[in-house]
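Dear Dr. H.,

I hope your travels went smoothly. While you were away I took the liberty of generating a structure for the chain from your last submission, since the lab meeting agenda had it listed for discussion. I wanted you to have the full record in hand beforehand rather than looking at slides cold. The sequence, exactly as received, is reproduced here:
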Amino acid sequence: MAPGIIPTRPRTGTTPASEFTELAAVVRASGLMRRRYGYYWTKLVAVPVVLAAGIVAFVLVGDTWWQLFTAVGFAVIFTQVAMLGHDAAHRQIFVSGRWNDWISLILGDLVVGMSYGWWRRKHTRHHANPNKIEADPDLDLPVIAFTPQQAQAQRSPIARWVVAHQGVFFFPILLLEGLSLHASSVRRVVAREHVDRRWVEIGFLLLRLGGFVALVFLVLSPGIAAVFLAVQLGIFGVYMGMAFAPNHKGMPLVPKDARLDFLTRQVVMSRNIRGSRILDVAMGGLNYQIEHHLFPSMPRPHLRRAAPIVAEYCRERGVPYVATGLWESYGIVVRYINRVGLGERDPFECPMIAQRQTI
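The corresponding predicted structure, in token form, is as follows:
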């Protein structure tokens, strides 16, 4: 499918609302919405075991530059834990919302150092309006311009130059994403902005962020400790960014006043990443972004099985379903933000989208 083009869908005798209802019935009948307690309990039990092993290894290795490899290991662990927290936040693990909330708080705030309350509100808005201008918070980043309006809003010569070359800087900028996530979490929790269980989050974040930094400087000399933290935060940010960036960037943009049916809104603005089960683990199931947006509470291990069902259903109804390779997706993202930065008018925007049938 050419970016930004939504072909006219054939008449199927069903309304857009009933189309998703029909798909949901097929998916539920396939048993793909049932809980996977064994899968998730295994992961939840593994978290403290792996963390304890990492801390023991860190202490035993001692004050040496070899600890930079340990820093990379911690970055991978924290990213994988964040992905597990993402599953809990979407109610994939337990039936009980309270249990899912507390698992998300423990994994997000206490282990990773990211505010669950802040992230939940932001991520909920994204799921409701993927790639919708002025509605999707994932389109609003302080450094990268994802829309022509954002690029044109830059006033200083330095900012305009950075945006004009943002394709080159995109992945290096991700080195700062880890620091940004921690800083945003602390700022929003302290500011009391849309955060439940505020004091629990403050306690968890203080323990995680303060305790981890204290441990690092206790074991390592100041110079090595500073580099260790920089590497850990940098790799964490790059890993998080490379897992999330391919999912929507470079897909059609939705005008802020457009109204779309649920199936179209979630499928057309999302991109799947083809790959093996190793990629499923590395990306935490986010490579099945279309299925995840359609069925957010579907357990991660069922997404691979749901993908061909959803793809065939969309093909039969003329709904564009996009799946690419991982490296191809990164190329699409970089080319897209280059086009935005160079001032191309409305790159990848959907001129037909407001004319589509709405509900």
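Two observations you may find useful: The chain has two domains: 16-35+256-354, 37-246. The radius of gyration is 21 Å.

With kind regards,
E. W.
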